[in-house]
Protein backbone atom coordinates (compact mmCIF):
# COMPACT_ATOMS: atom_id res chain seq x y z
CA UNK A 1 0.00 0.00 0.00
CA UNK A 2 1.68 3.22 -1.15
CA UNK A 3 2.16 5.95 1.45
CA UNK A 4 1.03 9.56 0.96
CA UNK A 5 1.30 12.82 2.87
CA UNK A 6 -1.12 15.73 2.97
CA UNK A 7 -0.30 19.21 4.32
CA UNK A 8 -2.25 19.70 7.55
CA UNK A 9 -1.78 22.84 9.60
CA UNK A 10 1.94 23.22 10.14
CA UNK A 11 2.54 19.46 9.81
CA UNK A 12 1.38 16.63 7.54
CA UNK A 13 -1.03 13.70 7.65
CA UNK A 14 0.42 10.38 6.51
CA UNK A 15 -1.83 7.63 5.14
CA UNK A 16 -1.91 4.63 2.83
CA UNK A 17 -4.24 3.61 0.02
CA UNK A 18 -4.85 0.23 -1.66
CA UNK A 19 -2.56 -0.44 -4.64
CA UNK A 20 -5.55 -1.11 -6.86
CA UNK A 21 -6.85 2.44 -6.44
CA UNK A 22 -3.89 3.94 -8.33
CA UNK A 23 -4.71 7.48 -7.16
CA UNK A 24 -4.12 10.41 -9.51
CA UNK A 25 -2.22 13.42 -8.20
CA UNK A 26 -3.88 16.76 -8.97
CA UNK A 27 -1.43 19.47 -8.01
CA UNK A 28 0.24 22.55 -9.44
CA UNK A 29 3.22 21.89 -11.70
CA UNK A 30 6.33 21.25 -9.65
CA UNK A 31 8.30 24.27 -10.81
CA UNK A 32 11.42 25.42 -9.02
CA UNK A 33 11.49 28.67 -7.12
CA UNK A 34 13.72 31.49 -8.27
CA UNK A 35 17.38 30.77 -7.51
CA UNK A 36 17.68 34.24 -5.97
CA UNK A 37 14.18 35.44 -5.03
CA UNK A 38 15.41 38.85 -3.87
CA UNK A 39 17.06 39.35 -7.25
CA UNK A 40 13.82 38.26 -8.96
CA UNK A 41 11.89 40.90 -7.02
CA UNK A 42 14.57 43.49 -7.69
CA UNK A 43 14.46 42.81 -11.42
CA UNK A 44 10.68 43.26 -11.46
CA UNK A 45 11.02 46.61 -9.68
CA UNK A 46 13.77 47.71 -12.06
CA UNK A 47 11.62 46.84 -15.08
CA UNK A 48 8.90 49.24 -13.89
CA UNK A 49 10.72 52.00 -11.97
CA UNK A 50 8.67 53.53 -9.19
CA UNK A 51 9.63 57.02 -10.33
CA UNK A 52 7.40 56.50 -13.39
CA UNK A 53 4.47 56.42 -11.00
CA UNK A 54 5.34 59.43 -8.88
CA UNK A 55 2.97 62.36 -9.27
CA UNK A 56 4.11 65.78 -10.44
CA UNK A 57 1.88 68.57 -9.19
CA UNK A 58 -1.09 66.28 -8.68
CA UNK A 59 -0.86 64.32 -11.95
CA UNK A 60 1.19 61.49 -13.35
CA UNK A 61 4.76 62.34 -14.27
CA UNK A 62 4.82 63.91 -17.77
CA UNK A 63 6.19 61.69 -20.51
CA UNK A 64 9.01 64.18 -20.98
CA UNK A 65 10.56 63.19 -17.67
CA UNK A 66 9.97 59.44 -17.81
CA UNK A 67 13.31 57.72 -18.01
CA UNK A 68 15.30 60.60 -16.56
CA UNK A 69 17.21 60.12 -13.32
CA UNK A 70 14.89 59.83 -10.31
CA UNK A 71 16.24 63.12 -8.90
CA UNK A 72 14.35 64.98 -11.67
CA UNK A 73 11.01 63.67 -10.38
CA UNK A 74 9.63 65.04 -7.14
CA UNK A 75 9.15 62.09 -4.75
CA UNK A 76 5.76 61.79 -3.06
CA UNK A 77 5.44 63.23 0.43
CA UNK A 78 3.62 60.08 1.56
CA UNK A 79 3.31 56.47 0.42
CA UNK A 80 0.87 53.81 1.66
CA UNK A 81 1.39 50.10 1.01
CA UNK A 82 -1.40 47.54 1.39
CA UNK A 83 -0.07 44.21 2.67
CA UNK A 84 -2.09 41.04 3.25
CA UNK A 85 -2.94 39.71 6.69
CA UNK A 86 -1.94 36.41 8.30
CA UNK A 87 -4.47 34.36 6.29
CA UNK A 88 -2.43 34.77 3.08
CA UNK A 89 1.00 33.16 2.49
CA UNK A 90 2.52 36.30 0.97
CA UNK A 91 6.36 36.31 1.22
CA UNK A 92 6.56 39.82 2.65
CA UNK A 93 10.10 39.16 3.87
CA UNK A 94 11.16 38.94 0.22
CA UNK A 95 8.82 41.48 -1.38
CA UNK A 96 8.94 44.38 1.04
CA UNK A 97 12.69 44.98 1.58
CA UNK A 98 13.49 45.61 -2.12
CA UNK A 99 10.35 47.74 -2.54
CA UNK A 100 11.12 49.86 0.51
CA UNK A 101 14.74 50.23 -0.57
CA UNK A 102 13.64 51.51 -3.99
CA UNK A 103 11.33 54.04 -2.35
CA UNK A 104 14.11 55.30 -0.09
CA UNK A 105 16.55 55.51 -3.00
CA UNK A 106 13.97 57.68 -4.76
CA UNK A 107 13.90 60.09 -1.83
CA UNK A 108 11.03 58.81 0.33
CA UNK A 109 11.93 58.52 4.02
CA UNK A 110 10.73 55.66 6.26
CA UNK A 111 8.54 58.10 8.19
CA UNK A 112 6.71 58.93 4.96
CA UNK A 113 5.83 55.28 4.26
CA UNK A 114 2.92 53.55 6.02
CA UNK A 115 2.28 49.84 5.73
CA UNK A 116 -1.40 48.98 6.21
CA UNK A 117 -2.39 45.39 6.95
CA UNK A 118 -5.33 44.71 4.62
CA UNK A 119 -7.71 42.66 6.74
CA UNK A 120 -10.88 43.09 4.69
CA UNK A 121 -13.72 41.97 6.95
CA UNK A 122 -11.38 39.99 9.22
CA UNK A 123 -10.86 41.42 12.69
CA UNK A 124 -8.17 44.12 12.82
CA UNK A 125 -4.82 42.59 13.73
CA UNK A 126 -3.50 43.71 17.13
CA UNK A 127 -0.06 45.31 17.11
CA UNK A 128 1.50 42.36 18.93
CA UNK A 129 0.61 40.17 15.91
CA UNK A 130 2.12 42.43 13.27
CA UNK A 131 5.26 40.32 13.40
CA UNK A 132 3.30 37.42 11.91
CA UNK A 133 3.08 39.45 8.70
CA UNK A 134 5.83 42.08 8.72
CA UNK A 135 9.54 41.31 9.25
CA UNK A 136 10.90 42.65 12.55
CA UNK A 137 13.45 44.96 10.93
CA UNK A 138 10.67 46.64 8.94
CA UNK A 139 8.45 46.99 12.01
CA UNK A 140 11.28 48.86 13.72
CA UNK A 141 11.72 51.39 10.89
CA UNK A 142 8.30 52.02 9.35
CA UNK A 143 4.83 52.92 10.63
CA UNK A 144 2.50 49.91 10.48
CA UNK A 145 -1.26 49.92 11.14
CA UNK A 146 -4.14 47.48 10.67
CA UNK A 147 -7.28 48.21 8.69
CA UNK A 148 -10.71 48.18 10.35
CA UNK A 149 -13.59 47.74 7.91
CA UNK A 150 -16.04 49.19 10.46
CA UNK A 151 -14.03 52.31 11.33
CA UNK A 152 -15.94 55.59 11.44
CA UNK A 153 -13.29 57.51 9.50
CA UNK A 154 -13.39 55.56 6.22
CA UNK A 155 -13.37 57.88 3.19
CA UNK A 156 -16.31 57.96 0.77
CA UNK A 157 -15.10 57.65 -2.85
CA UNK A 158 -18.35 57.43 -4.80
CA UNK A 159 -20.22 54.51 -6.34
CA UNK A 160 -19.43 51.83 -8.88
CA UNK A 161 -21.49 51.42 -12.03
CA UNK A 162 -23.56 48.81 -10.17
CA UNK A 163 -24.31 51.35 -7.46
CA UNK A 164 -21.98 49.97 -4.80
CA UNK A 165 -20.90 52.69 -2.38
CA UNK A 166 -17.14 52.61 -1.93
CA UNK A 167 -15.55 53.69 1.35
CA UNK A 168 -11.89 53.07 2.06
CA UNK A 169 -9.15 53.41 4.66
CA UNK A 170 -8.43 57.10 5.19
CA UNK A 171 -4.70 56.61 5.81
CA UNK A 172 -4.41 54.81 2.50
CA UNK A 173 -6.36 57.46 0.64
CA UNK A 174 -4.37 60.33 2.16
CA UNK A 175 -1.13 59.02 0.63
CA UNK A 176 0.28 60.55 -2.55
CA UNK A 177 1.23 57.11 -3.88
CA UNK A 178 -0.83 54.01 -3.13
CA UNK A 179 0.78 50.59 -3.60
CA UNK A 180 -0.50 46.99 -3.27
CA UNK A 181 1.63 43.94 -2.45
CA UNK A 182 0.35 40.38 -2.73
CA UNK A 183 0.19 37.09 -4.65
CA UNK A 184 -1.52 36.13 -7.88
CA UNK A 185 -3.30 32.85 -7.25
CA UNK A 186 -6.63 31.18 -8.07
CA UNK A 187 -9.73 32.46 -6.29
CA UNK A 188 -12.95 30.47 -6.26
CA UNK A 189 -15.30 33.30 -7.27
CA UNK A 190 -13.04 36.30 -7.87
CA UNK A 191 -11.19 34.26 -10.49
CA UNK A 192 -7.78 35.43 -9.34
CA UNK A 193 -6.29 37.15 -6.35
CA UNK A 194 -3.69 39.82 -6.91
CA UNK A 195 -3.52 43.29 -8.38
CA UNK A 196 -5.83 45.84 -6.78
CA UNK A 197 -7.68 43.22 -4.71
CA UNK A 198 -5.36 43.61 -1.70
CA UNK A 199 -6.70 47.15 -1.23
CA UNK A 200 -10.02 47.12 -3.13
CA UNK A 201 -11.22 44.35 -0.81
CA UNK A 202 -8.61 44.47 1.95
CA UNK A 203 -8.89 48.19 2.77
CA UNK A 204 -12.54 49.01 2.12
CA UNK A 205 -15.72 49.11 4.24
CA UNK A 206 -17.68 46.06 5.27
CA UNK A 207 -20.66 47.26 3.21
CA UNK A 208 -18.45 47.71 0.13
CA UNK A 209 -17.02 44.21 0.48
CA UNK A 210 -20.44 42.69 1.14
CA UNK A 211 -21.93 44.30 -1.96
CA UNK A 212 -19.04 43.14 -4.13
CA UNK A 213 -19.01 39.58 -2.77
CA UNK A 214 -22.76 39.30 -3.36
CA UNK A 215 -21.79 38.94 -7.02
CA UNK A 216 -20.33 35.50 -6.27
CA UNK A 217 -23.55 33.85 -7.47
CA UNK A 218 -23.49 35.66 -10.83
CA UNK A 219 -22.54 33.74 -14.01
CA UNK A 220 -18.83 34.17 -14.65
CA UNK A 221 -17.89 34.69 -10.99
CA UNK A 222 -15.87 31.52 -11.17
CA UNK A 223 -12.45 30.08 -10.52
CA UNK A 224 -9.89 31.14 -13.12
CA UNK A 225 -12.08 33.78 -14.84
CA UNK A 226 -10.95 37.41 -15.08
CA UNK A 227 -12.27 39.57 -17.94
CA UNK A 228 -15.75 38.02 -17.89
CA UNK A 229 -15.95 37.82 -14.08
CA UNK A 230 -18.41 40.38 -12.64
CA UNK A 231 -17.06 40.15 -9.09
CA UNK A 232 -13.47 40.64 -10.23
CA UNK A 233 -14.26 43.43 -12.68
CA UNK A 234 -16.08 45.37 -9.98
CA UNK A 235 -12.97 44.96 -7.81
CA UNK A 236 -11.02 46.51 -10.68
CA UNK A 237 -13.48 49.42 -10.71
CA UNK A 238 -13.11 49.85 -6.95
CA UNK A 239 -9.35 49.85 -7.44
CA UNK A 240 -9.66 52.69 -9.94
CA UNK A 241 -11.72 54.69 -7.42
CA UNK A 242 -8.97 54.10 -4.86
CA UNK A 243 -6.38 55.36 -7.35
CA UNK A 244 -3.97 52.50 -6.80
CA UNK A 245 -0.82 53.38 -8.67
CA UNK A 246 1.56 50.45 -8.34
CA UNK A 247 1.43 46.71 -7.68
CA UNK A 248 4.13 44.26 -6.65
CA UNK A 249 2.90 40.66 -6.90
CA UNK A 250 4.45 37.25 -6.57
CA UNK A 251 3.51 33.91 -8.10
CA UNK A 252 4.42 31.02 -5.82
CA UNK A 253 5.00 27.31 -6.32
CA UNK A 254 3.60 24.57 -4.08
CA UNK A 255 6.42 25.13 -1.60
CA UNK A 256 5.40 28.80 -1.23
CA UNK A 257 8.59 29.87 -3.04
CA UNK A 258 8.63 32.80 -5.45
CA UNK A 259 8.68 31.62 -9.07
CA UNK A 260 7.86 34.98 -10.67
CA UNK A 261 7.70 38.55 -9.40
CA UNK A 262 5.87 41.27 -11.31
CA UNK A 263 5.68 45.01 -10.75
CA UNK A 264 3.87 47.73 -12.70
CA UNK A 265 0.45 49.33 -12.69
CA UNK A 266 -2.05 46.77 -11.31
CA UNK A 267 -3.80 45.92 -14.58
CA UNK A 268 -0.51 45.28 -16.37
CA UNK A 269 0.61 43.05 -13.51
CA UNK A 270 -2.59 40.99 -13.78
CA UNK A 271 -2.40 40.74 -17.59
CA UNK A 272 1.16 39.44 -17.36
CA UNK A 273 0.70 37.37 -14.24
CA UNK A 274 -2.47 35.39 -14.91
CA UNK A 275 -1.04 33.32 -17.81
CA UNK A 276 2.06 32.58 -15.72
CA UNK A 277 -0.03 31.54 -12.72
CA UNK A 278 -2.42 29.50 -14.86
CA UNK A 279 0.50 27.62 -16.36
CA UNK A 280 1.43 26.48 -12.86
CA UNK A 281 -1.97 26.05 -11.19
CA UNK A 282 -4.32 24.65 -13.84
CA UNK A 283 -4.36 20.85 -14.09
CA UNK A 284 -6.43 18.88 -16.59
CA UNK A 285 -7.96 15.55 -15.60
CA UNK A 286 -9.41 12.96 -17.94
CA UNK A 287 -12.54 12.06 -15.96
CA UNK A 288 -14.49 13.00 -12.84
CA UNK A 289 -13.57 11.35 -9.55
CA UNK A 290 -15.37 8.93 -7.25
CA UNK A 291 -13.14 9.94 -4.34
CA UNK A 292 -10.92 12.97 -3.79
CA UNK A 293 -8.66 13.34 -0.75
CA UNK A 294 -7.79 17.01 -0.44
CA UNK A 295 -5.99 19.60 1.63
CA UNK A 296 -6.17 23.39 1.28
CA UNK A 297 -2.37 23.33 1.42
CA UNK A 298 -1.64 23.53 5.14
CA UNK A 299 -1.06 26.68 7.16
CA UNK A 300 -2.26 29.40 6.63
CA UNK A 301 -4.66 28.06 4.01
CA UNK A 302 -6.36 25.92 6.66
CA UNK A 303 -6.02 28.36 9.56
CA UNK A 304 -9.83 28.42 9.70
CA UNK A 305 -12.80 27.04 7.83
CA UNK A 306 -13.38 30.37 6.08
CA UNK A 307 -10.11 29.78 4.19
CA UNK A 308 -10.26 25.98 4.00
CA UNK A 309 -13.67 25.92 2.30
CA UNK A 310 -12.03 27.04 -0.92
CA UNK A 311 -10.45 23.60 -1.27
CA UNK A 312 -13.88 21.98 -1.34
CA UNK A 313 -15.10 24.50 -3.92
CA UNK A 314 -12.18 23.67 -6.20
CA UNK A 315 -12.43 19.90 -5.74
CA UNK A 316 -16.13 19.58 -6.55
CA UNK A 317 -15.48 20.97 -10.04
CA UNK A 318 -14.17 17.52 -11.02
CA UNK A 319 -16.28 15.23 -8.81
CA UNK A 320 -18.93 12.75 -9.85
CA UNK A 321 -22.32 13.58 -8.30
CA UNK A 322 -22.55 11.60 -5.07
CA UNK A 323 -18.80 10.99 -4.88
CA UNK A 324 -16.85 11.51 -1.67
CA UNK A 325 -14.50 14.32 -0.70
CA UNK A 326 -12.24 13.85 2.33
CA UNK A 327 -11.07 17.31 3.41
CA UNK A 328 -8.05 17.48 5.74
CA UNK A 329 -8.10 20.99 7.24
CA UNK A 330 -6.74 21.70 10.72
CA UNK A 331 -8.73 24.95 11.30
CA UNK A 332 -7.11 25.78 14.68
CA UNK A 333 -9.01 29.10 14.67
CA UNK A 334 -12.40 27.49 14.10
CA UNK A 335 -14.63 28.92 11.41
CA UNK A 336 -12.90 32.32 11.27
CA UNK A 337 -16.27 34.05 10.87
CA UNK A 338 -18.64 35.06 13.69
CA UNK A 339 -21.35 35.68 11.10
CA UNK A 340 -21.02 32.13 9.83
CA UNK A 341 -21.11 30.83 13.43
CA UNK A 342 -24.32 32.72 14.17
CA UNK A 343 -25.97 31.58 10.95
CA UNK A 344 -25.22 27.91 11.63
CA UNK A 345 -26.22 28.18 15.32
CA UNK A 346 -29.85 28.40 14.20
CA UNK A 347 -31.42 25.07 15.31
CA UNK A 348 -33.17 24.87 11.93
CA UNK A 349 -29.86 24.53 10.07
CA UNK A 350 -29.87 20.74 10.15
CA UNK A 351 -29.32 20.04 6.44
CA UNK A 352 -27.71 21.51 3.36
CA UNK A 353 -31.18 22.02 1.90
CA UNK A 354 -32.17 24.14 4.91
CA UNK A 355 -29.01 26.24 4.54
CA UNK A 356 -29.60 26.84 0.84
CA UNK A 357 -33.27 27.71 1.38
CA UNK A 358 -32.53 30.20 4.17
CA UNK A 359 -29.75 31.82 2.19
CA UNK A 360 -32.08 32.22 -0.78
CA UNK A 361 -34.70 33.87 1.45
CA UNK A 362 -32.34 36.25 3.24
CA UNK A 363 -29.92 37.10 0.44
CA UNK A 364 -26.19 37.65 0.57
CA UNK A 365 -24.43 38.40 3.84
CA UNK A 366 -20.72 38.01 4.48
CA UNK A 367 -20.25 35.04 6.78
CA UNK A 368 -23.48 33.24 5.91
CA UNK A 369 -22.18 33.17 2.33
CA UNK A 370 -19.62 30.63 3.54
CA UNK A 371 -22.42 28.38 4.78
CA UNK A 372 -24.03 28.69 1.35
CA UNK A 373 -20.79 27.79 -0.44
CA UNK A 374 -20.27 24.69 1.69
CA UNK A 375 -23.90 23.61 1.32
CA UNK A 376 -23.80 24.20 -2.45
CA UNK A 377 -20.79 21.91 -2.84
CA UNK A 378 -21.43 19.35 -0.09
CA UNK A 379 -24.98 18.77 -1.34
CA UNK A 380 -23.47 17.39 -4.56
CA UNK A 381 -21.00 15.04 -2.87
CA UNK A 382 -20.45 13.33 0.47
CA UNK A 383 -18.15 15.48 2.58
CA UNK A 384 -15.97 14.09 5.37
CA UNK A 385 -13.62 16.36 7.30
CA UNK A 386 -10.46 15.70 9.31
CA UNK A 387 -9.95 18.69 11.57
CA UNK A 388 -8.77 20.02 14.92
CA UNK A 389 -12.16 21.67 15.44
CA UNK A 390 -14.26 20.03 18.18
CA UNK A 391 -16.33 17.22 16.72
CA UNK A 392 -19.56 18.74 18.05
CA UNK A 393 -18.82 22.01 16.25
CA UNK A 394 -17.92 20.22 13.00
CA UNK A 395 -21.17 18.24 13.15
CA UNK A 396 -23.18 21.40 13.81
CA UNK A 397 -21.56 22.89 10.70
CA UNK A 398 -22.67 19.79 8.71
CA UNK A 399 -19.06 18.80 7.99
CA UNK A 400 -19.28 15.12 9.00
CA UNK A 401 -16.05 14.80 11.04
CA UNK A 402 -14.05 11.58 11.16
CA UNK A 403 -11.65 10.54 13.90
CA UNK A 404 -8.79 10.00 11.46
CA UNK A 405 -7.93 9.14 7.88
CA UNK A 406 -8.47 5.42 8.44
CA UNK A 407 -12.04 6.03 9.59
CA UNK A 408 -12.71 8.46 6.74
CA UNK A 409 -11.45 5.98 4.15
CA UNK A 410 -13.55 3.22 5.64
CA UNK A 411 -16.68 5.35 5.26
CA UNK A 412 -15.73 6.39 1.73
CA UNK A 413 -14.98 2.80 0.67
CA UNK A 414 -18.52 1.58 1.34
CA UNK A 415 -19.93 3.18 -1.81
CA UNK A 416 -16.97 3.09 -4.18
CA UNK A 417 -17.30 1.15 -7.45
CA UNK A 418 -15.03 -1.89 -7.99
CA UNK A 419 -12.45 0.22 -9.88
CA UNK A 420 -12.81 3.69 -8.39
CA UNK A 421 -11.32 6.82 -9.87
CA UNK A 422 -9.42 8.27 -6.90
CA UNK A 423 -7.45 11.48 -6.69
CA UNK A 424 -5.30 13.35 -4.19
CA UNK A 425 -5.28 17.15 -4.24
CA UNK A 426 -2.66 18.29 -1.68
CA UNK A 427 -2.77 22.04 -2.41
CA UNK A 428 -6.37 22.45 -3.46
CA UNK A 429 -6.62 26.18 -2.69
CA UNK A 430 -3.95 26.85 -5.31
CA UNK A 431 -5.10 24.27 -7.88
CA UNK A 432 -7.51 24.80 -10.78
CA UNK A 433 -8.75 21.33 -11.77
CA UNK A 434 -10.37 21.14 -15.19
CA UNK A 435 -12.01 18.24 -17.00
CA UNK A 436 -10.22 17.65 -20.27
Report what the structure shows.
With 436 residues, this protein is an alpha/beta fold. It folds into two domains: 3-28 and 281-435, Alpha-Beta Complex (2-enoyl-CoA Hydratase, Chain A, domain 1); 37-252, LarA, N-terminal domain (Rossmann fold), CATH 3.40.50.11440. It has helices at residues 37-47, 92-105, 136-141, 170-174, 197-200, 206-213, 230-242, 266-281, 305-315, 338-345, 352-362, 368-378, 391-396, 405-413, and strands spanning 3-8, 11-16, 24-25, 55-56, 59-60, 79-84, 113-118, 144-146, 155-159, 165-168, 177-183, 186-187, 191-192, 246-252, 258-264, 282-285, 289-294, 319-328, 382-386, 422-425, 432-435. The strands form seven sheets. A six-stranded mixed sheet has the order 8-7-6-11-14-15, with helices on both faces. A five-stranded parallel sheet has the order 3-20-17-18-19, sandwiched between helices. Strand 14 (246-252) and strand 15 form a beta hairpin.
The main β sheet shows up as: 6 strands, mixed
Radius of gyration using CA atoms only: 22 Å
Structural class: alpha/beta
Poorly predicted runs: 56-71
- The CATH H-level superfamily of the largest domain is LarA, N-terminal domain
Fraction of residues in β-strands: 15-25%
> First CA to last CA: what distance?
29 Å
Query: How many structural domains can be distinguished in the coordinates?
Result: 2
Strand order in the sheet with the most strands? 8-7-6-11-14-15
CATH class of the largest domain: Alpha Beta
Amino acid sequence: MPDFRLPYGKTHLAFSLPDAWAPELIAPRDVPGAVDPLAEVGAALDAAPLTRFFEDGGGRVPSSVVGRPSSVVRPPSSVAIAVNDKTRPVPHHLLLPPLLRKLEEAGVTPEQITLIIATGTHAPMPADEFGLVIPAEILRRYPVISHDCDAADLVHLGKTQRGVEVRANHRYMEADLRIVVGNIEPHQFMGWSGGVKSAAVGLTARETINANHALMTEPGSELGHYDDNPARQEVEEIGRLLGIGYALNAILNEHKEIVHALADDPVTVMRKGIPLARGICQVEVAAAFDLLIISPGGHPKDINLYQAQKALGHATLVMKPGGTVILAAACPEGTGSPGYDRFMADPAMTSYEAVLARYKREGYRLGPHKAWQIARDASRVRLIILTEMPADLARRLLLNPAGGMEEALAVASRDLPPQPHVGIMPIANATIPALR
